[in-house]
Each structure stands twice: as structure tokens, then as C-alpha cells.
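Q: What residues go here?
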């Protein structure tokens, strides 16, 4: 998301730097990249292809569909069968692949947060694309627990991507339920998104450990549940390395208890 221009729209200021971030990530062992053809639009996928194609065998590129961008950068729902089919083909073309490893259907019933309502029609369209061999696995994004349950009756759901972090904890019960079902949970905006996390408690724990606060926030997510996969975006190699270091950070039970109180 950070590899496109400001507001996830248009080209980045420094395309070479964006390519360097991707190459450094994969060289450092990252094998899960989150993207969407409506980032830019098309820009991020084109940069991924330029930086990494031919892709390493173990690299999993996860994309999402059901939105398009207006000329002013607006996020516009695009959930019809025709729009979803076109989006899959756009992703295939811009990434330069024959099949998309994972496609998340992002609910656009409300652009900014999960909203109850049926996703049967668009999910059936994605399932049909899966049967055609264009999509290998299906996930859901910006969804409620009820929508996940209903979706699993249509096709296998391998991951759920929702807004979740130290301060945004609405999905606590859903994460635990998905873990029991061996379904991955992928928190977007793990560091707060466009408004980065700010907490005196987070800063205090980070100071005590001698690491940046955002590294602690990522480590907390990894401690939170074994089914959590992280997708912290960045356009900086330096920031990338700080993010990756979160995987090695060990939080004590006391640290976890202190951090767990932030949402309250």
C-alpha cells in the first residue's frame, strides 16, 4: 500500500526505492506480500512484477478485489460479477502470473468498516473464478464473523483480513475462533494506518526494551495468536528492517499484560 503515491494513488516519488524495498524484503526471508490492483491503481502490482518477477517459488502474493478508484482517488465499490472478473484479470496481467495464489474479496458494503449484509453473490463469483483455475485460494476482508461463517458454506476460506491492532480490538473473539479452525488472520493497519498508534504505555514498554514503539506493536500481534500474519507496509528499507526485527522480539507476560490494557 505504501509503494504507490500519496493516498495510495498514482506513482511513488521514488520508484527505485520501492523496488529496493521489495527486493530487500524477499532477500530477508519475507514470503508473503499483500497487494491490490486498485493500489495506484495498477502501480503497486506493476512495481512488484518489475522488482520480483520471475517470482521465488515460495513467495505468496495475496491480492484483493471489489473496489476501483475514481479520478480523484476515491474508493468506489466494484462488487458485481463483471467487475470482479475484470479485477482478477487485471491482477493476473499486471502481476504477470497465470493464477492468483490468494484473492481476498473485500466487502464494500461499507467502505471503512465491516457491515452486515449478504456477500453470497460476489463470493459465488469469486468461487467460479477459482473453479476456472484463475484463483487458487479465497479469503475475505473487511467482514463480520457472520459473513465469514456464511462464506465458508460457499467455498473454503483460507484467511480473513480485517482492521486490528493494539488499540483496535473488535475482532478478538473472531481471531480466536479462526485459530481453532486453522484459518489465518491478517490484521491490516497493524500500526494504526493513516493515523499511527500513539500510546504512553506502548512508548514506556518500548523504552524499557530499548526498541522502537512500532516494533513492540508488531511483536504484540505475533504474540497475540499463532494464526496471525503481519502485513506492515513501508516504502523504506530502514523501516522494513525495523519491522522484520519484531519477529525476534520476546515480550514477557508482564509486557503483554501491560500492552493488553491499551484498548481498555
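A:
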Amino acid at each position: 500500500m505504501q509503494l504507490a503515491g500519496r493516498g495510495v494513488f498514482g506513482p511513488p516519488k521514488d520508484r527505485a526505492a520501492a523496488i529496493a524495498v521489495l527486493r530487500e524484503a524477499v532477500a530477508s526471508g519475507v514470503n508473503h506480500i499483500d497487494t491490490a490492483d486498485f493500489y495506484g491503481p495498477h502501480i503497486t502490482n506493476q512495481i512488484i512484477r518489475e522488482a520480483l518477477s520471475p517470482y521465488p517459488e515460495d513467495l505468496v502474493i495475496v491480492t484483493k478485489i471489489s473496489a476501483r478508484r475514481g479520478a480523484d482517488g476515491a474508493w468506489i465499490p466494484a462488487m458485481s460479477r463483471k467487475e470482479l472478473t475484470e479485477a482478477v484479470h487485471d491482477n493476473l496481467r499486471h502481476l504477470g502470473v497465470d493464477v492468483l495464489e490468494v484473492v481476498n474479496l473485500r466487502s464494500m458494503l461499507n467502505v471503512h468498516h465491516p457491515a452486515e449484509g449478504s456477500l453470497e453473490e460476489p463470493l459465488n463469483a469469486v468461487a467460479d473464478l477459482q473453479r476456472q483455475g484463475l484463483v487458487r485460494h479465497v479469503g475475505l476482508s473487511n467482514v463480520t464473523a457472520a459473513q465469514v461463517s456464511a462464506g465458508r458454506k460457499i467455498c473454503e476460506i483460507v484467511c480473513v483480513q480485517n482492521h486490528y491492532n493494539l488499540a483496535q480490538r473488535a475482532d478478538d473473539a473472531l481471531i480466536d475462533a479462526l485459530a481453532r479452525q486453522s484459518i489465518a488472520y491478517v490484521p491490516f493497519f497493524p500500526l494504526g494506518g493513516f493515523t499511527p498508534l500513539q500510546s504512553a504505555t506502548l512508548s514506556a514498554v518500548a523504552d524499557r526494551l530499548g526498541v522502537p514503539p512500532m516494533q513492540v506493536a508488531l511483536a504484540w500481534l505475533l504474540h497475540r495468536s499463532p494464526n496471525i500474519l503481519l502485513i506492515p507496509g513501508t516504502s523504506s528499507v530502514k523501516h522494513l528492517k525495523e519491522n522484520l526485527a519484531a519477529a525476534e522480539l520476546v515480550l514477557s507476560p508482564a509486557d503483554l499484560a501491560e500492552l493488553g490494557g491499551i484498548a481498555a
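A: Context that may help when evaluating the design: The longest helix spans residues 81-95. The chain has a mean pLDDT of 96.
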